[in-house]
Design a protein that fits this description.
Elements: E1 2-6, H1 9-26, E2 31-34, H2 41-52, E3 62-65, E4 67-70, H3 80-87, E5 99-100, H4 109-122, E6 128-131, E7 153-156, H5 159-165, E8 178-181, H6 184-188, E9 193-197, H7 203-210, E10 229-234, H8 235-239
Parallel strand pairs: 1-10, 2-3, 2-6, 3-5, 6-9, 9-10
Antiparallel strand pairs: 4-8, 7-8
Helix pairs in contact: 1-2
The structure holds 2-amino-2-deoxy-6-O-phosphono-alpha-D-glucopyranose (GLP).
Length: 240
């Protein structure tokens, strides 16, 4: 596991964008696994800049997002589809038909999870998967639990995650209580993984990951089973 500790959020964003850009340059038709949350917003802004400057090209890129609230309409401004359009897809030369987010409006969530899993597998997994980390150690919406699920599935959100995400909604009661999420195996099928953590609130979860052991109480710790992981964090997340 490679660890890069940066001074500022800006530096974290630039370093992370560079890691993703390297994969895109080496493989113009790469599959990018993408994440939402406030942490990667700066990284997406950097990728937009690089695209506008002609440094990177999205024309042959395919994307697969980690997760989506369920149920939620893609037009809802809190949906992860909306987030991705707003932060990246609307500003780069990507073919929108090759951008994939689990469908939060699917009538049958379980069937949608199966479809999405089969789709990601048919692509051979992501060439690089971008991850944030929940303050309780969740990745995508794989929450700490006695057992974790390998494949894309419908899951309930913990109180802690609903509480953490309530800042984006009118109130905690408006946060959907379920989500569609890639499973641990779907995530680990990526050829390379970059996980980004900023702010002291992520210190406990990041420390658990960096300890090097594996526990279902911290899903991010499963990245210790993968042999190509880059951790990019700021000093606040690293030092607490
Ligand atoms: C959300 C997402 C995760 C994200 C995490 C952290 O619940 N499902 O993919 O990594 O929370 O979000 P933030 O970066 O806003 O702290």
């Amino acid at each position: 596991m490679e660890l890069i500790v940066c001074k500022t959020y800006e530096e974290v964003s630039q370093v992370s964008a560079k890691v993703v850009a390297e994969v895109m340059k080496a493989k113009p038709n790469a599959v990018l696994g993408l994440a939402t949350g406030s942490t990667p917003e700066g990284m997406y802004a950097e990728l937009v800049k690089m695209n506008k400057a002609g440094e990177i090209d999205f024309s042959d890129i395919t994307t697969v997002n980690l997760d989506e609230y369920y149920p939620i309409s893609p037009e809802n401004d809190q949906s992860y589809r909306y987030f991705m359009n707003k932060n990246l897809f609307d500003h780069v030369n990507i073919d929108k038909s090759r951008t994939n987010v689990p469908n939060g409006a699917a009538p049958d969530g379980e069937a949608e999870a199966k479809r999405y899993e089969a789709f990601v597998r048919s692509l051979g997994g992501a060439d690089i998967q971008v991850l944030g980390i929940g303050r309780n150690g969740h990745i995508a919406f794989n929450e700490p639990d006695e057992e974790l699920v390998p494949e894309t599935h419908v899951t309930g959100l913990t109180e802690d995650t609903i509480d953490a995400n309530a800042r984006f909604f009118a109130s905690a009661a408006d946060v959907p209580t379920k989500a569609l999420t890639m499973g641990m195996g779907t995530i680990l099928s990526a050829k390379k993984i970059i996980i980004i953590a900023t702010g002291a609130g992520k210190h406990a979860a990041l420390s658990q990951l960096l300890k090097g052991t594996v526990t279902t109480k911290c899903p991010a710790s499963f990245l210790n089973l993968h042999n190509n992981v880059v951790v990019v964090c700021d000093e606040a997340a690293y030092n607490g």
